[in-house]
Amino acid sequence: MRIDIVTLFPELLEGPFSHSILRRAQERGLLEIHRVQLRDFATDRHRTVDDYPYGGGPGMVLMAEPLANCLDHLLSQRKYDEIVYLTPDGERLCQSLCNRLSLHQNLILICGHYKGIDERIRKLYVTREISIGDYVLSGGELAAAVLVDCVARLLPGVLNDEASALFDSFQDNLLAPPVYTRPEVFRGLRVPEVLLSGNQKAIDEWRLEQSQQRTRQRRPDLLPPD
Ligand code: ADE
Q1: Residue 207: pLDDT above 80?
Q2: How many angstroms is it from 105 CA to the middle of ligand 1?
Q3: What order do you get walking across the sheet with 32-37 strand by strand?
Q4: Please, which pLDDT band fits residue 161 given cuts at 50, 70 and 90?
Q5: What is the percent of the chain where pLDDT is above 90?
Q6: Around 102, how many Cα atoms within 13 Å sit in the side-chain half-sphere?
Q7: For the chain, does the N or the C end have fewer beta carbons within 10 angstroms?
């Protein structure tokens, strides 16, 4: 999968992709991330990318022309499956959307700043608008990093234990069960006996029961209505 991230602050996106699983995914050739500097597509000598909003009000708006130039340039190089704008008024990111995005070849992510991007870019280019939650970040970069992380770990070959993403929280609308590792007793707290039993059927049943209980207690909204 190739992901082009259009941003005014490419440095913000260096750290999140240089470690651990995302780094390995790139080293294995499973994921290509390109940070595209929007300012390189400005048309005046000051390299202006933002302007005052028509109608007044606080904050600046990212101008249509540099964004259109940037997107035209990318679209002239290859076909993209989705052009995603990260924005608090977008569709809420969830695991099933990550699963669907992970099936694509090429994605563009647009990071907004200030008051957002000119509405005409949303109309003319953007195919999907995504929010990572009901709060406002100071820019789309951290949201893009979250999205890339969630999607990249689902690509075949990225996780060492191929099956492990299947057992994540949310994969079947249930929260994950509790997990334990050595020692068997820590500060008086014992690992549940069933996990030491070697009886895989009993372990699977216990895990499902724990997942259901946790979901009922913490996120009843995930459960189907009775
Ligand atoms: N940009 C600013 N806030 C955001 C959010 N919550 N999700 C996605 N992009 C954003």
Answers
A1: yes
A2: 24
A3: 32-37, 2-7, 106-111, 82-92, 128-131
A4: confident
A5: 92
A6: 21
A7: C
Residue nearest to atom 2 of ligand 1 (CA): 137
Q: Which residues pair with 130 in a beta bridge?
A: 91
Ligand 1 probe mutation, 93, 131, 138, most atoms within 8 A of CB: 131
Binding site membership of 144 for ligand 1 (Cβ less than 6 Å):
no
Measured from the Cα of 132, ligand 1's closest atom is 7
How many whole angstroms from 137 Cα to the centroid of ligand 1? Answer: 5
Domains of the chain (ranges, CATH numbers) = 2-152 (3.40.1280.10), 169-222 (1.10.1270.20)
Q: How remote is the CA of residue 6 from the centroid of ligand 1, in Å?
A: 15
Residue 53 DSSP symbol: P
As a whole number of angstroms, the distance between CA 28 and CA 35 comes to 19
Q: pLDDT digit string (tens) for 73-97?
A: 999 999 999 999 999 999 999 999 9
Which of the four pLDDT bands, split at 50, 70 and 90, describes residue 164? confident
